[in-house]
Task: inverse folding
């Protein structure tokens, strides 16, 4: 499996000379649909004639543990597979697989089997069943059903309005540039339209940033108390750094770090565009606590630290359907180990009484509640103020987890 279907498709179009060719559009769409519906399309032949859905599902799950195995099934099915994908993408249920899986979900006594049926019915590979069953245990049957239903569609492109009280005026400017606002959630605007956001005046003038709604909610939940020395430890290209900078509105000081020099270079560019002062950018590789800047060390640490940790990305499957095929359960333990290390290293940089925010764009309990619970168990000077899953299924967006932890004041 290539690292990203989008990137792979772009490169392939270049090699065959189809970039900007109108014929490329249906090809890209098919690839997208195949990725989104491929699991369900590959399940069909297992059901066959006269076989029980339950038996077929168990056999299918037992045959498909890795992306490679799913790809083999796709290749074997060939033309028939393509026609199934097209039908499913247009909302049809040509072989009755959806109806059969729905019936199984409704009637299953066994919760694990019901989860498996729900996943395959929504085009999610069966190897995610154990992790999503754990999410169902915590968030409920209804949460999982609504979240799976969301996976069939891409969320809109969300913009964060830099100064929320200017949202009305920004809407007008976007409209003049050919971008239609299709949804609004306080200072967050979802847009559609032929103009790339990067070409709009609102973006060029730093009035909006591209940032998913759930990510905006996590950023809003970062406590910015009196001291306002803030460290964004896994800043990436700075989606949340810019939001925190906006929220501080010239007060306090933000420090932003990442392990990737390329991402930090991009963050610097973004800061320049908005004339972002009071942001200091420095590398951190996550191996142990950072060396605190002198003025921060003098105060005993940062007031607030955000760890927006690298993760499986299961909360962004709606935008990158291929990620659900690339992510496998065996990688969950590795993600969680890295997340634990980052949280621990970053926690050492928080002053007594300060706040530590832990976030991921995953819905898996192993990467979220379990990481936080283990940290709290080992570090009694810390307590959980609140934690929450943001975005989908409640909103038409990605799904992100955010937890606010507080260090005891000495
Ligand atoms: C979820 S992304 C951050 C997204 C960013 N906060 C935003 O809002 O746009 C996770 C980031 O963690 C960084 N990362 C990965 N391993 C790291 C490590 N060992 N130390 C510090 N950062 C790391 C990645 O380079 C990536 O940019």
Result:
């Amino acid at each position: 499996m290539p690292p990203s279907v989008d990137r792979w498709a772009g490169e392939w179009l270049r090699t065959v000379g189809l970039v900007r060719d109108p014929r490329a559009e249906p090809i890209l769409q098919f690839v997208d649909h195949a990725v989104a519906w491929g699991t369900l399309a590959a399940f069909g032949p297992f059901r066959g004639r006269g076989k029980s859905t339950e038996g077929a599902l168990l056999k299918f799950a037992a045959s498909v543990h890795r992306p490679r195995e799913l790809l083999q099934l796709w290749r074997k099915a060939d033309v028939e597979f393509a026609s199934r994908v097209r039908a499913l993408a247009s909302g049809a249920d040509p072989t009755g697989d959806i109806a059969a899986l729905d019936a199984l979900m409704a009637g299953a006594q066994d919760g694990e089997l019901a989860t498996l049926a729900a996943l395959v019915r929504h085009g999610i590979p069966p190897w995610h069943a154990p992790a999503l069953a754990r999410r169902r245990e915590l968030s409920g049957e209804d949460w999982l059903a609504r979240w799976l239903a969301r996976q069939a569609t891409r969320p809109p492109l969300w913009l964060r309005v830099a100064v929320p009280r200017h949202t009305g005026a920004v809407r007008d400017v976007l409209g003049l540039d050919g971008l239609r606002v299709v949804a609004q959630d306080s200072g967050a605007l979802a847009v559609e339209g032929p103009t790339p956001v990067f070409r709009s005046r609102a973006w060029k003038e730093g009035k909006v940033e591209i940032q998913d709604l759930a990510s905006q909610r996590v950023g809003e939940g970062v406590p910015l108390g009196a001291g306002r020395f803030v460290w964004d430890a896994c800043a990436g290209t700075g989606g949340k750094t810019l939001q925190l900078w906006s929220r501080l509105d010239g007060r306090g000081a933000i420090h932003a770090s990442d392990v990737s020099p390329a991402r930090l270079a991009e963050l610097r560019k973004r800061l320049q565009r908005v004339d972002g002062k009071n942001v200091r950018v420095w590398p951190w590789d996550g191996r142990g606590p950072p060396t605190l800047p002198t003025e921060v060390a003098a105060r005993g640490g940062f007031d607030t630290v955000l760890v927006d940790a690298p993760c499986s990305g299961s909360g962004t499957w709606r935008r990158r359907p291929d990620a659900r095929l690339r992510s496998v359960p065996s990688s969950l333990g590795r993600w969680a180990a890295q997340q634990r290390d980052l949280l621990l290293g970053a926690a050492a940089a928080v002053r007594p009484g300060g706040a530590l925010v832990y976030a991921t764009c995953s819905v898996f309990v192993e990467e979220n509640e379990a990481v936080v619970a283990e940290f709290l168990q080992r570090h009694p000077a810390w307590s959980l103020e609140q934690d929450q899953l943001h975005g989908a299924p409640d909103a038409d967006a990605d799904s992100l987890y955010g937890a606010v932890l507080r260090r005891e004041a000495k």
The pocket of S-adenosylmethionine is lined by residues 215, 234-240, 258-260, 263, 284-286, 308, 310, 342, 361 (CB under 6 Å).
